[in-house]
Amino acid sequence: MQKKTLEIIGKKEIEEAGATLARYKRGKAGLDRRLAEDELWWELRHREATRRDKKPQGVPEPASAWLFNAILNKHADATDNFPEPLVLPREPSDEESADTLSQVLPAVLENCDFDKTYSDNWWEKLKHGTAAYGVFWNPEKEEGLGDIDVRRLDLLKVFWEPGVTDVQQSRSLFLIELRDTDLLEKEYPGHEGKLSDDGALIKEYLYDDAVDVSNKSAVVDWYYKVRDGRGRTALHFAKFVGSELLYASQNDPLYAERGFYAHGKYPVVFDVLFPEKGTPVGFGYVAVCKDPQLYIDRLSGSILENALIATKKRFFIGGSTNVNREQFADINESFVDVEGDISERAVKEIEVRPLDPVYLSVLNLKIEEIKDTAANRDVNSGGVGSGVTAAAAVRALQEAGNKASRDMIETSYRAYNEINRLIIELMREFYDEKRVFRVTGKSGGREFCEISNKTLFGAGGGARSPVFDLKIRAR
User: Fold this and answer.
1) The pLDDT of residue 200 is above 70
2) What H or E segment, with its residue span, contains residue 370?
3) Neighbour count for residue 272 (Cβ, 10 Å)
4) Which of the chain's termini has less CB crowding within 10 Å, N or C?
């Protein structure tokens, strides 16, 4: 008689997880508001975030792109230094495995469209201060054989324990995705009519499109860690909607003992720009530069308003003077009818005093401030000051001007290192069958490389598993 599987995760545990998620969501509310507001600044729509009353009629409200340009240049520096992993052996016996991994890892990432993920996440890192990567095993890839998936995660849909500085230290980690309810019911038969349409669970950005969430369900991926009697930490996973459980690894005999992923880590990596105390995320260039950007736009608006007033002729007309105002306002009229005598005191041009040049100087100082704050001087964009003509001097200035970018890219490489370590662990766990990848050989030509966990990681035979060091370099 087949033994019935003990149900460890049930409705009670899911309701408790939902309460934990609600607590995490409250603790992250301030960050969610900042993320949505930062996106408006990036889209040059920051007046919508800063305006508290109705827009004054006829007053210019320019939105200059100094902040946008700073982020654009930093993103260009990042794409110029796209990372590539180099796997180094710890022992001579691991050298062949390390060489194979060095060739295969770029191919695995290419299959994940990591170029796009890397570019998209650098926008997030520069704008919001944090890029979130998810490193998962996707059993549906390669026609059901399964393969690794590296995806960009939206920080609005990731929730961790408030107060932790390392996401791996959080007691639970939640990822939320909006799915069409009808399609979800077909994917999980037996749950028809039980899935709640709770699209309002996630804070959204201010989209130009009208996003309808009325027929969508918030699907929660719940990752949590459990310590067994031997002191080993196992990572487990549950998927639920509302209080309806769709899947739980602890209820699955295949994963109940060893955990959902053998490496025991949350499959999430944060790449932080400017770190903050008490949180695993940071802040970006929008937070640093939005104050000078705001005053640049306000000063520009006032200067433009003064210019518009000064360039449009206006007149005082006395009430006792019977001037035909329609003819007076029409520049095509050669004659203007006046009843009675007219004097210079009756019709007088309004004189507008031009702004003092000091205000233009203040505007230019704010522009220089945002350049200095963002480390986005002219030399970073390829320009140099007047009088600098020698090629060596130009290169020296550009090299010195790129220090901030090099520092950002180096910290990003650390996150990329962790992504590759998770990939290697997933290959160690799931590459049971031999895989063949097309790679670039040492001579630069096309080659084919075979890899499996049996041949590379000593799986199954009790052999020692190789240990590797990772070094990241620019491609």
Assistant:
1) no
2) helix 357-373
3) 21
4) N
Q: What is the pLDDT of residues 217-245, one digit of tens each?
A: 889 999 999 987 667 889 999 999 988 89
List the structure tokens of 443.
């001579």
d(CA 299, CA 289): 16
Instruction: Check: CB of residue 421 under 8 Å from CB of residue 468.
Output: no
What are 73's two structure tokens?
């240049």
* Cβ neighbours for 160, distance < 8 A, ≥ 6 positions apart: 24, 28, 167, 170, 172, 173, 174, 280
CA dist 182 and 184 (Å) reads 5
Quote the CA–CA distance of 107 and 246 in Å, as a whole number. Answer: 33
CA distances from 362 to 70, 303, 309, 463 (A): 20, 11, 21, 70
For tokens 């009818």, the residue is: 337
**395 to 82, 189, 383, 384, 410: CA distances (angstroms):** 21, 64, 11, 10, 21
118 CB-contact burial (10 Å; exposed 0-12 / middle 13-18 / buried 19+): buried
